[in-house]
Amino acid sequence: MNPEVLDPQLMLNAYAQGIFPMAETATDTELFWVDPNERGIFPMDTFYLSRSMRRFLSKNEIQTTLNNEFETVLFHCSDRSETWINPILKDLYKELHNLDRCHSLEVWQNEELVGGIFGLTIGGAFFGESMFSLKRNGSKAAVIILRAHLQHCGFKLFDTQFLTDHLKSLGAIEITKSSYRRQLAAAIDLPVSISAHQLPTIQSILQRNTQTS
What is the pTM of this model? Predict the structure, then answer.
């Protein structure tokens, strides 16, 4: 794909159809479309919190912010030896953030940034792009808090693109392309916003009726 033809609107149109762009490496100047046969998602009708994360959240002073440090989150997500986020995608994510279509959630511990996650939104669908940890459980806390927040805001799809062991440990599952497309079609036209509510407190998350293991 010629990256010069990819702009924020085309990117949103592609996500609405179930495909997304990636680069082979951080230095690659080309992009390609990805349309997985199996898709990773977090079910939005349940909430999962492992015993180990319950202990971590209850014993540590954790704070979260939304969109306070978008470019910092983007930097940490792409600052690794192997990544599919090249400069072209970074610029597109920044443009989408300025259009209120790409968002970050930051996790703080004792006023220090320890993790985060970012992704795109279309209606009631959140498309998770990448996450990072600077300290233990930073990215896990980001996913847990974001999932609770999206549920509160009325989102019906939390797309993780692929299913990894890390995401599976947080409650993600894998579904077929046809099942994903049905969920996507039902979610993208919903009149919801990631900014509709304040982020949940750690206490409110710990008080939820959760599935634990």
Answer: 0.95
pLDDT given at position 206: 94
What's the Cα-to-Cα distance from 207 to each of 47, 49, 161, 210, rounded to whole Å? 12, 11, 29, 8
For residue 115, the Cα-to-chain-centroid distance in whole angstroms is: 12
Tens digits of residue pLDDT in 122-140: 999 999 999 999 999 999 9
Please name the fold of domain 3-206. Aminopeptidase (3.40.630)
Distances (CA, A) of 191 to 84, 123, 194, 197: 31, 6, 11, 14
Shortest CA distance to 185 belongs to which of 42, 17, 24?
17
Question: Where is 139: in which H helix or E strand?
Answer: helix 138-153
Query: What ranges do the domains of the chain cover?
Result: 3-206
pLDDT digit string, tens, across residues 71-97: 999 999 999 888 999 999 999 999 999
Q: Where are the alpha helices (DSSP H) in 65-137?
A: 70-78, 87-98
For residues 152 and 115, the answer to whether their CB atoms sit within 8 Å is: no
3-state secondary structure of 179: helix
By residue count, the chain amounts to: 213
Return the closest-CA partner of residue 45 out of 137, 167, 165, 183: 183
d(C-alpha 98, C-alpha 115), whole Å:
22
> 65 with 108: CB under 8 angstroms?
yes
